[in-house]
Amino acid sequence: MIRKFRTIASDARLPQEFHDNHPETELSLSFANGSHTRPEKISDHILCRKIKLKKRHEIERLFKVIPPLMTLSGVSHIIDCGSGQGHLDRLLTIIYGYKIHSIEMDCDNVENAQLHDKTALEYLQRLKMTQLEHSDMPTKVNCFLKSGQHIDEAIEAIDGQGVVGEHLLLGLHACGPLSNMILEQFADNPKCRALVLACCCYMKNGKEKFPMSQYLGERMPFVLSREAKEVACHAIEKFLEKFNANELDSLRVHGYRAILEHLILKHDPSKKHTGMRSVRIDSSMGFKQYGLKASRNGDTIWANIPDDGFDSEEIQPMLEECDRVVLYYSLRMLVAPIVEALILLDYEHYLAEQTGVKSTYVIPLFEPTLSPRNMILVAHK
Ligand SMILES: C[S@@+](CC[C@H](N)C(=O)[O-])C[C@H]1O[C@@H](n2cnc3c(N)ncnc32)[C@H](O)[C@@H]1O
Which of 66, 83, 90, 182 has the most ligand 1 atoms within 8 A of CB, as the residue to mutate? Predict the structure, then answer.
């Protein structure tokens, strides 16, 4: 059942009300679905420059949902929270002409997004493929959204362009607390008419943010630990691919990472749980080689681990236990989709409990092997 829940949405599985409301556009997007090949159409080539395959796939899929939802809820304005490099917003503006505010806390992301917008627009203008001007491109709002803050007020304070009207609220892989903020914003702000949200990093959510719905709040017989929320971020499909392709050696990386954590705690406890470089391993790669790759970047050494720490005597018995970590990891993977389903269904209940909400959906929109957080929450008032 869970597998069915996560299976990619074909057109046929999108809600009927979306099929009936798909606007026509002059410029279209026809990226080869999931293909690495160079797009044939010049417009596609311009539109998808610098956009990674995963992001292209997500954008292509979101184009089946966002435009019909805009029509259904009668809005032409989008507020994107955590817009990153702005690829989705740029294409939504160029192709559909929507007015967009892109809110992003990281100023490097904002600068890159502005540069990409400018380059794409100038190309299209030179080829006379668009009527848009620079002022039509997404407005960048460089700010850190805080819980309890009204997003439209944050925009008005920075943009200075008067009152923000009715809009669709968007969050594509909004990490942890940002997802909760977006959900609360949709609930509290009558001007938010529709919502499209792909969550990620569930473990970063505050304890008080689960469950969010009254329904589950009254019934929840247990507390979700940080570890449970963390495992919900893993895609069982990728894991199964490795299983089916007999690439179990690569799963040893989890055992290696556990030993590396032991060394980190020993040599520099302040780096506990720090993200290390991700390293693909195969049967020929030993722990030392892995450890050096994961913890070194040129001359930079993380966590003060000396080179001989990677083959010290204490490591050997741990290496012999490595497969038990893989076994434990596999058992955790079995419950991962159940935890994610629980979180998302709680969020959906929360949305459905709000006044004026007409429909809510949890849609498995992305191909999970390409984009592991593949479910989106959709609602409109
Ligand atoms: C996982 S990225 C996704 C970026 C983009 N939506 C995409 O899919 O390409 C999440 C983005 O949200 C931004 N972000 C996270 N929390 C934020 C907050 N509280 N306020 C503003 N931006 C935030 C991060 O800087 C990051 O660029």
Answer: 83
Instruction: Retrieve residue 292's tokens.
Output: 């050096």
Question: Are residues 251 and 314 part of one domain?
Answer: yes
Q: Is 144 helix (H, G, I), strand (E, B) or coil?
A: coil
Q: Residue 345 is part of a domain; what is its CATH number?
A: 3.40.50.150
> Strands of 192-200's sheet, edge to edge?
139-142, 99-104, 77-81, 167-175, 192-200, 375-380, 359-364
Ligand 1 pocket member 152 (CB < 6 A): no
Q: Would 230 be classed as within a structural domain?
A: no
Q: What is the pTM of this model?
A: 0.87
Residue 47 lies in a domain: yes
Ligand 1 pocket residue status of 301, Cβ below 6 Å: no
Q: Whose CA is nearest to atom 1 of ligand 1?
A: 173
Statement: residue 8 has pLDDT above 70 = no
**pLDDT-based confidence at residue 1 (cuts at 50, 70, 90):** low
> Does the pLDDT at position 222 exceed 90?
no
